[in-house]
Amino acid sequence: MYDVIICGSGPAGMSAALFLRRANLNILIVEKGTPGGKLISTALIENYPGYIENTGIDLAMIMYRQVKHFKIPYAFSEVMKIEKLGDEHFVVHTKEGDYESKMVIWAAGTIAKQIEAEGEEEYVGRGISYCAICDGSFHEKQNVVVIGGGNSAIEEALYLAKICKKVTIITRGHHFRADPVLMEKVMRANNVDLVTHHVITKFTGKDLLEQVTAKDRDSDNEIVLNVRGAFIYVGFTPSSTLLENFDILDEDKYIIVDRNCETKVTGLYAAGDCIQKNIRQIATAVADGITCASAIVRKI
Ligand SMILES: Cc1cc2nc3c(=O)[nH]c(=O)nc-3n(C[C@H](O)[C@H](O)[C@H](O)COP(=O)(O)OP(=O)(O)OC[C@H]3O[C@@H](n4cnc5c(N)ncnc54)[C@H](O)[C@@H]3O)c2cc1C
Question: Which atom of ligand 1 is closest in space to residue 13's alpha carbon?
Fold first, then answer.
């Protein structure tokens, strides 16, 4: 039986793993995708201390190398169910098999929200993407739209502006919510247009995306953009459905934890973007991972 199983290998999961391993605990990370979590799909990071204007993939690989340096074992599989059988006894069911542990850290992050406009599902992978760094290069010298008004939307638009002919950023708000430093950069880019107060109504085309239609929220006046790519950054929902039976989720499905990042289910911890908190960033995910790992080390 493992001391701790960590579900998810983003910044929160990897930070927890490093602390637990260095305390000589017997741990396992279960990851359904690529270690790094959302870092893998982040074009530019410039607000994580010690890391100046670099890509998310680079930071993910630095963290992963550190985890491998401490010989932390991985099970590359998707967690399908978590059961608590008794005191200090959990079973983590994955697609490839079951693992037992005394404690569990859930660090599974969040999933990108869809905008639910007509044609969105139809054109995912055929022009619509939720990851500029993954799919931006398909749109070299083409026109694209970025949908969203926060930091993620602006960061990814800046990345796309280097590759694409023209980038139009559309937000439903009256203003963009991104940090001023990012807005200054985007204003300086000569191939970026900003559109506020519009909602996307439909995505159209033949086999591939060809047009995005947006309408003014007050007047209903429509604009139609001829684009080959649409990148959507309108927020996230927590990856927490598997924990619903423990009755530890708030109304938005974020996991409720105490100051040690432990849920009300003894031995079940949660860390990173999936927990109820105000700021969802790499630094706060790392902090949560360390917080629960330290609490576990004190307890075991
Ligand atoms: C486009 C974009 C740009 C961003 N830019 C910045 C930035 O500049 N600075 C900054 O500080 N933050 C930025 N962020 C936010 C930052 O990436 C997140 O706050 C951080 O990655 C959260 O880490 P996490 O470990 O909680 O979750 P994640 O990074 O989401 O990792 C969760 C991991 O859990 C795995 N997982 C999920 N479900 C399961 C399952 N059932 N079984 C097994 N594994 C599972 C996933 O595959 C994933 O690897 C950005 C985010 C996005 C989307």
Answer: 25
